[in-house]
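Researcher: Here's my situation. A collaborator sent me these components and asked whether they could plausibly form a single complex. I don't have experimental data yet, so a predicted model of the whole assembly would be a useful starting point for our discussion.
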Amino acid sequence: MSRIKDIRFILKKYTYKRPFCIAYGFVTETENIEIEVITESGIVGYGESAPSFRINGETPEMILALESKVKDMILDKEIRHYREIFNITDKLLSSPSLKAGVQFAVIDALCKECEIDAWEFFGGVKNEIETDRTVSVRSIEDRIEEAIEIYKEGFRIIKIKVGEDLNKDLEAVYEICRNTEGCRYIVDANENYTLKDAVYFVKKLYSNGIDISVFEQPVSRYDIEGLKYVRFNSPFPICADESLKTKYNALKLIKEEAVDMFNIKLMKSGISDAIAIVELAKTANIKLMIGCVSESSIGINQSVQFACGIGCFDFCDLDSHLMLEESDFRGSFRQVGSKILVG
Amino acid sequence: MSRIKDIRFILKKYTYKRPFCIAYGFVTETENIEIEVITESGIVGYGESAPSFRINGETPEMILALESKVKDMILDKEIRHYREIFNITDKLLSSPSLKAGVQFAVIDALCKECEIDAWEFFGGVKNEIETDRTVSVRSIEDRIEEAIEIYKEGFRIIKIKVGEDLNKDLEAVYEICRNTEGCRYIVDANENYTLKDAVYFVKKLYSNGIDISVFEQPVSRYDIEGLKYVRFNSPFPICADESLKTKYNALKLIKEEAVDMFNIKLMKSGISDAIAIVELAKTANIKLMIGCVSESSIGINQSVQFACGIGCFDFCDLDSHLMLEESDFRGSFRQVGSKILVG
């Protein structure tokens, strides 16, 4: 038995190795908040919140400002009663990335106390997953160059960000595919196409013999009918990302038959909703991807442990730590090229 | 780390303290199969299968005949990889009670290895639940007598079996309510009303000032439209029992908006589908009951650990062990009247 004696929030700043560009602009650095949950027996559980203003409306300052609130909520709670802590932290409606970091830190402490690895706590299905790497939205030449670099590093799943200019996007996807034979491709528009452009885009790719594995969030997160329209007019599976944060979003997407796949990110859902979304998706025959925001190695570790344990993710997009300058690698996993190993 | 070295199936026969009668007939004894999962480190995990021919089409002989199949499926599997074992045992399509017993025995062994109580493994939300007791379908006088006896023993949630004769059922419910003031009532027709009778029944109760908390499985398990009709014509919450075995049933019931509540029984769903159904129900704002078949104390223990850990059951109908003659009490819980305590 071990109660939570203290919780610490530690601001960390990371610089991107190169600017990371999506349809909305580019970032050169990120600020994450490390969460330490300390038990009365001296065990420290580690988590990380990677706040995203674009996705969740969160800022690092806002997360830091919630420290005393989180302490009020869960100090003195027993870590073995983790679902009680999940229920309490589910109230952090405006800060899902904080919910994720706190919930994982509690699970990490519990696993240390019980001498079980976190991936085993979550179910122990796989001790190895494969991650993609992501090509930013830049000039066509830069995008091709970045893709070839990724390919040469041994990655065989490539995520291509699109959504800025339809024709340039088509050309970039053609050229990337032509230069990286044998790969699978996730194309992500980050909400930035119109409905008609999205359908034109996939039909054009298809008629040119391009095969993509997933087309992610083609239209606005709020346009569930639009997602469904694209789904039933696309030869490729359609995946919800920004449209899917809570388990309630998942049920709505299932009821509306809007998508073929869900992209779960712990930073959008926390551990509690991520578990629920997995069960909903498996029941409704929806495929699963796990993604990330801007987590460092200690934050990506959360998704690695979760994805390996649950074991039902068709695609893992867990590459943010590879984009950041970090003085020390701090995950409980081994990165061997595109492979991520636990246990 | 501990692999499964052996699995034992042990047939146990139990006699009911008094014949247990529902709309379909009565039983005087039951045969359950105890499941022992033995790990290479010598830990023994205990589970129980309580087969039901009426609910699942199972017989004890059939469960025993699956012993070698189960051994083929999971011998040598690591108990820490419990979701892998869940995925494998999910293939036991014809024998959900066996799936339940095997899955719980694995979790029990894992919890012993990690020195965590099973209710904490499931989430640790509650260390106390309250069970109902059940009044059989017999003569009106016998039903009233049994209800008063239950009431005098301190139970304040009474489950009343109906479904044999509409007018006798109405009279029995009136009289039971009149003689057991301050109780809550679950009325269970076990599929045995017509749609019109079901609506007549609840409206008649309501107009006579009788308040019941749950009306369970009024019509055939296959009549989802019928359940929905009753739901929207009933002042009382409608609960699915026989209609709800797998998580796929749960999703269908949610999509059809057919019921207000789910009665989860591990013997219908196993642990794996029960976990999924909980997540589905919480997401869809469906209330939850946990029920039983004919488990002895070691089998009821499974549902007790699950219900306490998950902590979101509005009603617990875990009384089968109280109906059976047992030489030794074998649950990891304490029964104090209607209260069930863990930890």
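Model: Some features of this prediction you could bring to your collaborator: Residues 4-115 of chain B form a domain with the Enolase-like; domain 1 fold (CATH 3.30.390.10). The radius of gyration of chain B is 20 Å.
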